[in-house]
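Attaching the record inline, Q. Sequence:
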Amino acid sequence: MLQNGAKIIKKKMQTERIIKKVKPATGTYGKLAKMFVVNRKTVSFAINGKSNTDLAKKIRKAAVEMGGDPIYE
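Structure, as predicted:
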């Protein structure tokens, strides 16, 4: 036990890093928009980290798989 009743707080270790933004490969916006049936603005918001919905996370993951460079938190 610690003095003064202090408690030990354990942080949960994250095993998966979260992609915050992506520097996409050339021509990726249009391909992603067609792939996810959304407009280019939605893709732009997802890639630039302005949206963090499940769809945005999927778009960022697909952008990385298409050759983009991930930018982590």
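The radius of gyration is 18 Å. The first strand starts at residue 19 and ends at 23.

More tomorrow.
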